[in-house]
Amino acid sequence: MAAQLVSKSERAYIQASLQATPPLRGDGRGLLDFRTVLLETGVAPLANGSAKLNIGKMPHEGGGGTEVLAATKLEVEDVESGDGVDGGRVVCSVSWCAIRSIQLEPIVQLTKDSSPSAYPHLSSNALDELQYDLTVILQQTIGHPSLHPQNLTIIPRKKSWLLNLDAVILADAGNAVDALFMAARAALWDTKVPRTRAVEYQAPEDSQTTRDSASAMDVDNREAIPTASGFDTREMARTAADFELPDYWDEGEVLHGRERWPVCITLNLLPPSHFLDATPPEEASVPLRMHLMYSFASPSTPKLQSMRLLGPGELNSAQIKSYISEGEKYARELFNALESKLREEDVRRNVKARDRFAQR
Amino acid sequence: MISFASFPSTSEGSGSYTNTRHHPKIEEDEVGMDLDEDDFEEGTQRLTVPGESITSSHAFMRGHGTFVDDEEVIASVAGTVERVNKLITVRAVRSRYNPEVGDLVVGRITEVQPRRWKVDANSRQDAVLMLSSVNLPGGVQRRKLESDELQMRTFFEEGDLLVAEVQAFFADGAMSLHTRSLRYGKLRNGQLVTVPPILIRRLKSHFVALPCGVDLILGLNGYIWVSKHVKESEQEGEEGFDAEAVYSNKNDSIDDATRIAVSRVSNIIKVLAAHFVPLTDTILLEAYEWVVEQEGNVKDLLSDEFGETMVASLGLVPISLLTDVMHTGGF
Fold first, then answer.
1. B117 and B238 both lie in a single domain
2. What protein family is recorded (chain B) (predicted)?
3. Which of residues 119-178 of B touch A (CB under 8 A)?
4. ipTM over 0.85
5. B135 and B54, same structural domain?
6. For A165-170, what is the mean pLDDT?
């Protein structure tokens, strides 16, 4: 991620500690230990699905930790006019909260600043690049055709849903990419696609009444119309031209294949060892980082959806192979933990909704 | 290895926001009480939250952290009310570091400029360290040469950590630092921990040596340097002042026990800061002894219950009122 400034002696201290036997980390964690991850789904009431995730927040304290907010919003797109794609699209974007300082003056005002609170030390050019990088990683992995959900079609060849996935990095205290993917997965898991029903538009068939005189209005002369020629495309337009939402109170159904959404695991490589969930000084002290995005559609055959190698160091193919298989193990553990948490969240929110209803 | 949890709920139970919450010790009628001038006696601490009316603007002047509305002085931040004669200020519980001349700070070089370094010291603006305010190789009395200006990066470069003293202020409020003492200068052999600046008490000495072989430098700006102990006699002396040692980037050899102790002390500081306990050398020492008695792992320290037992066992419960103020008044 964004390189945090560390001095040479700090870097040497971190590297020497990691290479000691047994390896030590600045906060006493083991090499493969994550900080505590806090997750909550359904945080944005206006979104179709949303999640807030924090890695490494200290208890009691107001802030701290890497915090990511992800939300999805569905939008109707017209396929025929060329905006949309048949079967729907997924568009991802990553940004940061630009509200830098909040002051309470006689009225509360929000002061906007070009540099965000997550990366206050970066120039605007570096921020743009970072934003682009993260957006591309997310888009290429989440928006990949192999993960495309089947139920984004409203009316075949006419209307489809556009799934916007927006992630905001509120604070970066290390390991932002893992947090980003976990939040994205949670938001997509939480997404509900509204149920739709196709509406057929019945064209007034006696269209020649306009031509006829007013006196012929009440005459049923349907039989008199010659059958439409093959070039007349109005017939096709007559079937299922639009849709309606049958139950407005219902949130809808979940995205198809929501088990497939990938998780990311970042291996911080400091040969010969590697470790997970780095803090910013640790991130700045390792020469290489490897992002591995795994999808566990069927638990027995995980799929490596994408992979990034960052940093100036180098690896040979045998090492890469071993890291990929190691990464699969960690990713599976992360996936299982996240999956059970997401199911827990589903239960919690259903109970809450029921309670709210009972209170009325 | 990886564990998930929920965000701590902001409202305990449903509908708690409909009732006003007060600290249990405060009686209802006390809260509504109007404040007289006697409430601002020296030595008594009074806490306030944003939007709370402090006093009448006829009798007092508004200072930092307050504004006047409807002839009343109203707090704009959560913190303690302070009074100097007729001037009322509120010192925020959480804010950036407000420098004062003579403070000891730990900072990080962000930029090298002609004849000066820019230093991040957790203040509103970057601090400035002039080339003329550092000790250069060859003794204190040496003149600054043009060659020194050309090799400023051999002394400090971007990212380097240093300990310095606030020397003066510029017209715009930025602080000027100096490292003209043998105890000041570049930092090595350890790691940095950051806490809110308000938690650092002014002490007799901000260089603390714990008996576990760990040195602490408690910067008043909230940056704390935790490092391996260096013996007094082995510190770089006045005569043998050589740039090699003072401006070195190389760490000494540090054994594993010391590294573990450094991590343990860092975690203790983090836990105390999370519970909003003001840090002093005695508290840190007590906490360290307690932790060693428990024989826990270093990483267990960061767990929630362990931190709470530690803070409770030290007899430190100053947080209840203060965090109440912060949670209700803070953002």
1. yes
2. Belongs to the RRP4 family.
3. 158-161
4. no
5. no
6. 90
